[in-house]
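Budget justification note: compute hours in this period were largely spent on complex prediction jobs such as the one shown. Inputs:
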Amino acid sequence: MLYLDIVRSPYAHAKIKNINIEEALATPGVVSVVTGKDLDAHGLASMPTLMSDKQMVLPIDKVKYQAQEVAAVVATSRYAAADGVEAVEVDYEPLPVVVDPFKALEDGATKVRDDKDSNLIWHWETGDKDATDKVFDEADIVVEQSMYIPRIHVVSIETCGCVASFEPIEGKLTLYMTTQAPHAIRTVLALVAGHVGLSEEKIRVIAPDIGGGFGGKVPIYPGYIIAVAVSFLTGKPVKWIEDRSENLQADSFARDYHIKAALSAKKDGTLTAIKIKTVADHGYTDAAANPSKFPAGLFHICTGSYDFKQAHVEVDGVYTNKPPGGIAYRCSFRVTEAVHCLERMTDIMAHELDIDPAELRMKNFIRPEQFPYSSVLGWEYDSGDYEKALRKAMEMIEYDKLREEQKEKRARGELMGIGISSFTEVVGAGPSKDYDILGLKMFDSAEIRVHPTGKVMARFGTKSQGQGHETTYAQIIAEELGIPPEHIQIEEGDTDTAPYGLGTYASRSTPVAGAAGALAARKIHDKAKKIAAHLLEASEEDLEWEQGKFFVKGSPDRSKTIQEIAFAAYTNHPQGRSGHLLRPTQLDLSFRLLHLCRRHRPGHGRSQDPPFRRRGRLRCSHQPDDRRGADPWRSHDGDGARASRRDLL
Amino acid sequence: MSTHSITLKVNGEEHTREVEARLLLVHLIREELELTGTHIGCDTTSCGACTILLNGRPVKSCTMFAVQASGAEIASVEGLATNGNLHPIQEGFTEKHGLQCGYCTPGMMMTTVALLKDNPNPNEEDIRWGVAD
Ligand code: FES
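Corresponding output:
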């Protein structure tokens, strides 16, 4: 195993004048030092982001944020790699830094990106501006507020990391990594490194049990790509585990929305319109893990649970000298920002009108009879009874009593606050009309296998980070098939075995993959019914289902359990319903001649080993073992490594 | 980098190793002794995922050098179960589903073992202080 550690920039914006790796290479245990130029020679110095922007893996000439990856040291131990990082000398020329997104938008501001015309990434707006302005003009009361929802880091208890293991003989990469979306990562990797031979069928991503994600394990960080590149070039497994300070400084963030909102109402408390202008700080590239088709994600859910007749939203995405990101933490993408804004404005309005905030909300909730409801900004709400939910919550906390207590306390000079917030979220990413990531749209899948004994293996394209999918999915399938959940084994996270899926984030796994599981189980249920009818010599219409078994209507003792049916599915199925089973009708008698040969390559003095022997030897020399010394088949130079691989194959 | 010979007992088994002075105890446990139940969450003595018992006291093994543990008796999560039977604390965590992703759970269990040894009937405040220790 080789270990990777990363040299990071102390500057938020600087020219890299020189990188001196001499001393690092002379450090005991250091195997190589990788720079942007090395990666560039293989077309791997940059990668596309999930928003189709461009992100550096390692910089060639400039760094764009503090703690950006500048070079990587590969060594035989994590400690030696850290020594190597200390020994790399980088000569920087600091450049002016843009950290305030408002200043970034001013004329003459320093440009964060040399390849762009300005620091404005995109401007996006939705809703009818003129109609909204008109409502504001006619309003009895208007409140305004600016709010900043700061940049946060999600801090999963396990940091990000991977072991990239490229097997040169098969040309196959196995990447063990802490990812919430193993299949999407595989596809992105194929897009990034397909040109060097890592096409999608040659990549296996395995996300084992991982210690929390919270959105932070959706993006692809440069460290992963560097580890893959180093493993590819050396033919050895490479481990990269970031430490906590790297995780906090350089990994993806959530929020960083500067919001200016205005809310209009009638005197009686009827909310009439909302206007929102937002400046979104995206850092130096737009690398948001945004599964929607809208640049600001689902931010236009900002009319929330209330019946607004007009609304208008504008968002400007801005480049600054900060780490890239934008992830869905604790909600779907940009929903928390929208809800925070709306609920805060509602409270301000309640205060202004001197109406109880609960009452103001009740007055403006979408009413049950309005469902299905289309929001003015284009979302479809299927059902709901928001007033009932709020009343119930108020009863539970004894709201009136709390207000009394608050009054008493305030009279005594003691402060007590009571907060109310409703939260209408768009979850279950999502219908292709509104959702997409890299053109893959959004979907998920489940694959269920029933074994002859009626036990089940179910695989999903999602990846739990502690949400307990093993329990949830097993319960869903158990309910559909009438078997105990403990008879169901759930697996996810291995792209070689699990069906394709878009992963776990933004509150999507149970509604999407869970639903896929239910649908697949229903298909099995239907098939089971056909087999039961065959076994019971009854027509399907005459069968009834009761948890775990089919029985003939009126004669409950003529029944077949799902376990009996499962066994019959392999052994005694009705004609034409064998699925993919091949049933040989007679024994296959094979006759073989064993033919051995040794081949000579013309011009070679020695005989060439049969391929299997050669493979065997190579395999041995690629055992992930540090102690065996230098690998005779690999140089640490990229081109050399490739040339030798070509020779071998 | 100077190396030192250290001997320590981990889960009842004695180990002698030649280690660099800077090797962290958690790395000795995980990488050298291959007891990977002890996890690293923060590297900075904040999270407790790496908690082990050093001579019976809970210690964050990410903030101690291996050489400092020479001569000590260490218990890691792998030593909790005996003869294939879970430790009552492990049973308790299982029964009450005392975890979410499970990453810090080994440290939480070791801390709990130590807490209950000192104070078999802790109240909520004792527990809060105990696990934050
Ligand atoms: S790893 Fe967090 S306290 Fe040691």
